[in-house]
């Protein structure tokens, strides 16, 4: 049997030299990736992906956006925009796929892309937000126990977004936190009253965020504030929305009609 002997003073310099060489090799590889990236090609791919994402009401366009963003990432592994947009697209795809395996695959790639975005730019909100969103999407598919283990990570990412940019995407981090409290059973830490408080904070930035208003209407309904729930639902149905968020507004409008039906 071979014995593992401690490093001698003679072998230590060689070990350090090997580590230094490995570090230098990694740095050279990263530098080569950066130097060979084609900014014009990446910009073109990102533009194409944006066009498909704008038409995401058809999930085929969302899938096309994912494929193009993968190519953009391969073209430049240091493109922050490519990875956070890939995380965003995969969240949309995962949220609208019908097959559970396809949902999970989308959310998992979205998580990986979000983690890459956070590493590339830890002080920017997009990576944190879409990482948290995909963690939440995966947790929904995998069930309550998995959701419970994911809650701290989701909260951390959304609270980081608020710290970096409180009004990000019209209060969307508040929307995510409020939804978490609304959907999580009380025995697992959910809190309907806290959901109302958090969503009301988000409303300071999200007057035109129809999904935030929908979650607030649902929270009001959950705490038996029926008049407030009706007011938020009606506000959604008369809102002017930006073309960029048409699919989300249509989803919110359907939800608002469901709430108003409950309130009849």
Give the gist of this structure.
This protein is mainly α. The chain contains twelve helices and no strands.
Structure keywords:
264 residues; mainly alpha; Serine Threonine Protein Phosphatase 5, Tetratricopeptide repeat; 12 helices
Detailed description of the structure:
It is built from 12 helices and no strands. By secondary structure, the protein is mainly alpha-helical. It has a domain at 39-165: Serine Threonine Protein Phosphatase 5, Tetratricopeptide repeat (Alpha Horseshoe). It is globular.
The dominant shape is globular
Number of strands: 0
Termini separation (Å)? 81 Å
Largest sheet: none
The CATH architecture designation of the domain at 39-165 is Alpha Horseshoe
Number of helices: 12
Summarize model confidence as the mean pLDDT. Answer: 88
What's the CATH topology name of the domain at 39-165? Serine Threonine Protein Phosphatase 5, Tetratricopeptide repeat
Spell out the CATH superfamily of the domain at 39-165. Answer: Tetratricopeptide repeat domain
Radius of gyration: 23 Å
Portion of residues in beta strands equals: under 5%
Order of helices and strands: HHHHHHHHHHHH
**Low-confidence runs of at least 5 consecutive residues:** 1-35
Structural class determined from secondary elements = mainly alpha
CATH class call of the domain at 39-165: Mainly Alpha
> How helical, in percent, are the residues?
over 70%
């Amino acid at each position: 049997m071979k014995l593992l002997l401690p490093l001698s003073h003679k072998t230590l310099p060689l070990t350090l030299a090997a580590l230094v060489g490995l570090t230098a090799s990694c740095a050279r590889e990263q530098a080569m990736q950066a130097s060979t990236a084609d900014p014009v090609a990446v910009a073109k791919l990102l533009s194409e992906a944006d066009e498909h994402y704008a038409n995401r009401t058809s999930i085929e366009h969302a899938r096309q956006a994912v494929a193009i963003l993968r190519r953009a990432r391969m073209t430049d592994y240091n493109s922050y925009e490519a990875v956070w947009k890939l995380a965003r697209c995969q969240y949309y795809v995962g949220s609208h796929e019908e097959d559970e395996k396809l949902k999970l695959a989308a959310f998992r790639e979205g998580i990986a892309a979000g983690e890459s975005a956070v590493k590339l730019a830890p002080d920017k909100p997009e990576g944190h937000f879409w990482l948290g969103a995909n963690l939440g999407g995966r947790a929904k598919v995998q069930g309550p126990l998995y959701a419970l283990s994911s809650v701290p990570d989701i909260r951390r990412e959304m609270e980081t977004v608020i710290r970096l940019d409180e009004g990000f995407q019209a209060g969307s981090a508040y929307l995510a936190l409020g939804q978490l409290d609304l959907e999580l059973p009380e025995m697992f830490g959910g809190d309907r009253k806290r959901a109302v408080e958090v969503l009301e904070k988000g409303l300071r930035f999200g007057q035109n965020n129809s999904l935030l208003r929908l979650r607030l209407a649902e929270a009001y309904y959950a705490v038996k504030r029926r008049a407030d729930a009706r007011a938020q639902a009606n506000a959604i149905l008369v809102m002017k929305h930006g073309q960029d968020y048409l699919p989300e507004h249509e989803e919110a409008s359907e939800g608002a009609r469901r709430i108003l039906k409950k309130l009849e």
